[in-house]
Design a protein that fits this description.
Layout (H helix, E strand, L loop, with lengths): L8 E2 L5 H7 L9 H8 L9 H5 L6 H9 L3 H11 L3 H7 L11 H6 L5 H14 L15 E5 L3 H12 L3 E6 L7 H4 L10 H10 L4 E5 L9 H7 L2 E4 L5 E2 L12 E3 H10 L8 E2 L1 E5 L3 H12 L4 E5 L11 H9 L2 E4 L2 E9 L2 E12 L6 E11 L2 E4 L3 E2 L12 E2 L2 E2 L12 E3 L11 H20 L1
Parallel strand pairs: 2-3, 2-5, 3-4, 5-19, 7-15, 9-10, 9-15, 10-11
Antiparallel strand pairs: 1-8, 6-16, 12-13, 13-14, 17-18
Helix pairs in contact: 2-4, 4-5, 4-8, 5-8, 6-8, 9-16, 13-14, 14-15
Length: 450
């Protein structure tokens, strides 16, 4: 994020105490007493709707009952049996639109049981007490599986395969494992290097080797992996970022929000990060929210999210939208980027066009009315794109650039499975990726042991 003389972009906007406070844990963990009090609120429903709403089908009433009985370690084992990344999911899952949204307490009183915080209490207690790994590895099968991508899908798949006795090698393009959990989530949601602690916890099962700095298509090829291993799982994520399609998009201050979040997550000293006084974020999903809030936390004075449709169609949950607004972020709907204003190679403003739904077609259309916002930085958060390049040469069917899989996450290639947001219909939620990895692992195990 280089500084231009025409822009008010600089580092050290805040005191070191402000940086530390701004990026502290947004949801402090429950104390043991608070966890007991919250667990007492659960009705332990039969056919609990919260369990049905969980993509990984965690037995939520059972783990909460364990906490109520003073057994958080047992609660953690219940969680890990369905979601080995339960600690991270407790921090980043949109529980307000999943398990907590359908909680009977929410339906009756508008105040759900704090399932996410209870899950964190259980998993943190387990990991902080340095318990033996909750699973034992089966006898070695002699089968070797390659996994491309050490994100949530890849880690989940690797762990489940390792429990079955298979040997797993994960190839990760970046220098650290973790994927989205390490590079793509707001720093205030997962503090104290928790993503790496969780990777180490998962690897304790044994039989998992992680090779970082190994990119598909550069350091390893898919045909090579398919030939050398008994099976391959692809958890590639979405490496590309959609462009605005405007002149001046390569100017200083026009930044991919995903890259911004990744740089922030890896920063040793937040005071060295440069941020504009006036920031505009284009997009309506979680990446846009995370980029906007963290811009404010770094010291930006004016932060605006511009979204081309109405509030009801934003991918970010209402809770996350409200969180942004309580941090001083202004969210403006029905605005689409029209042009960037650049001087001396740096952006200084962006013009947006007001939009609406065409009365005849129902499709989004510009109204012709323009709004110009001053901006020292413009963050692009309008979605990520797949890269099908490394898949060329193999009979892997694609759908709109993403990998087509069956319900068992097997691709059209007999030895290759895939999961996470790189697959057609995939979602960018950690918990959904974890489930994809589990499903694929069980399918791989069944195929290899047939």
């Amino acid at each position: 994020m280089p500084v231009s003389e025409t822009n008010d972009v600089k580092s050290n906007r805040l005191s070191s105490a402000d940086y530390a406070d701004n990026f502290s844990d947004i949801h402090p963990p429950l104390t043991p007493h608070e966890a007991l009090v919250e667990a007492d609120r659960c009705y332990f429903c039969y056919d609990a709707p919260c369990m049905t709403a969980c993509p990984t089908s965690i037995d939520i009433p059972l783990f909460i009952r364990n906490i109520q009985a003073g057994n958080p370690v047992g609660a953690a084992k219940t969680i890990f049996s369905q979601n080995i990344l339960g600690g991270m999911c407790a921090r980043v899952c949109p529980t307000e639109t999943l398990c907590e949204e359908v909680c009977v307490r929410e339906t009756a009183e508008g105040k759900p049981v704090k399932i996410g915080l209870l899950q964190r209490h259980a998993t943190d207690t387990f990991m902080e007490r340095e318990q033996p790994h909750p699973f034992k590895r089966a006898a070695p099968t002699g089968k070797r599986i390659a996994i491309v991508g050490a994100g949530p899908a890849g880690l989940s798949c690797a762990h489940r395969l390792a429990t079955h006795g298979h040997d797993v090698t994960i190839f990760e393009a970046r220098e650290k494992a973790g994927g989205l959990n390490e590079y793509g989530i707001a720093a205030y949601k997962t503090t104290n290097d928790f993503a790496q602690d969780e990777v180490e916890f998962i690897a304790q099962i044994g039989g998992i080797t992680i090779e970082t700095g190994k990119a598909l298509g550069r350091d390893v090829t898919l045909d090579q992996l398919a030939a050398d291993f008994d099976a391959v799982f692809l958890g590639l994520g979405l490496p590309g970022v959609n462009a605005l399609g405007l002149d001046g998009e390569d100017a200083l201050g026009v930044i991919d929000a995903v890259d911004f979040i990744g740089v922030l997550r890896q920063a040793d000293d937040l005071s060295l990060l440069e941020i504009g006084r006036r920031v505009v974020v284009i997009g309506g999903g979680m990446t846009a929210i995370d980029a906007a809030i963290q811009s404010r936390l770094l010291g930006a004075e004016e932060v605006t999210i511009a979204y081309r449709r109405g509030q009801e169609t934003m991918n970010a949950s209402l809770y996350e939208q409200e969180l942004a607004q309580t941090h001083g972020v202004v969210i403006r709907h029905w605005l689409a980027p029209k042009s960037l204003h650049v001087s001396d190679g740096a952006v200084f403003a962006i013009t947006l066009e007001k939009t609406g739904l065409d009365s005849a077609t129902g499709k989004l259309a510009g109204t012709g009315e323009l709004v110009t916002l001053e901006a020292d930085q413009v963050f692009k958060a309008i979605g990520q794109t797949p890269d099908a390049g490394p898949l060329e040469g193999l009979s892997i069917e694609l759908e709109n650039g993403r990998i087509r899989t069956g319900a068992d996450r097997r691709t059209s290639h007999a030895k290759i499975w895939a999961g996470g947001d790189c697959i057609a219909g995939g979602e960018d939620l950690t918990v959904v990726s974890v489930e994809d990895g589990k499903i694929a692992a069980e399918s791989i195990h069944k195929a290899l042991m047939a």
